[in-house]
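Dear H.,

Thanks for agreeing to be a second pair of eyes. The structure we're designing against is below in token form, covering all 175 positions.
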């Protein structure tokens, strides 16, 4: 299948000084998992100030320019599926669902269907909401075997707002 080339850029913020590179990239690019970002670092696909940065535990200082150039699996190849959702809250901007343990959140290798994303995509489609949000508006994830609430953005504004809240650690997660 198609593997598009993408380039991600960002500037490391002063408040991230002293953090590990992989941790900082996970904050700057929340749509990608920390393990995927670590793989890209180790594969020499991350540049910091124009130089290859291939050590995940390297410390950052703030102000560095980051560029990541990679081919990524087309993560939007999911089909809306009529899977019941336990909707706890919904308005024009967000959807909050209570995910049951055992349900995979996002399609991936070995789990291309029957995921929360498939169910949310169906819910959006059924209610006339057109979305091209990556990961169908997921700002965070929880493991397959974990149950709990997930907040899902229904538009770009909500996605940006929620991502900023998670990045600035203004949203508290309880486990």
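And this is the sequence the design step returned. I haven't edited it by hand at all.
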């Amino acid at each position: 299948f198609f593997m598009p080339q993408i380039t991600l850029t960002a500037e490391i913020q002063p408040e991230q000084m002293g953090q590990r590179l992989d941790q900082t990239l996970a904050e700057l690019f929340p749509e990608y998992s920390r393990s995927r970002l670590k793989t890209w670092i180790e594969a020499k696909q991350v540049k910091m100030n124009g130089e290859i940065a291939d050590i995940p535990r390297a410390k950052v200082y703030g102000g560095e320019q980051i560029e990541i150039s990679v081919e990524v699996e087309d993560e939007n190849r999911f089909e809306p599926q009529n899977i019941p959702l336990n909707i706890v809250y919904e308005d024009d901007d967000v959807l909050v669902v209570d995910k049951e343990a055992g349900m995979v959140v996002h399609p991936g290798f070995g789990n291309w269907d029957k995921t929360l994303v498939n169910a949310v995509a169906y819910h959006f489609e059924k209610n006339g909401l057109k979305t091209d949000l990556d990961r169908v508006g997921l700002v965070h994830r929880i493991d397959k075997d974990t149950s709990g609430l997930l907040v899902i953005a229904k538009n770009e504004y909500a996605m940006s707002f929620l991502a900023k809240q998670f990045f600035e650690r203004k949203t508290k997660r309880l486990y």
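Two observations from my side: The longest strand covers residues 5-11. The chain has a mean pLDDT of 84.

Warmly,
E.
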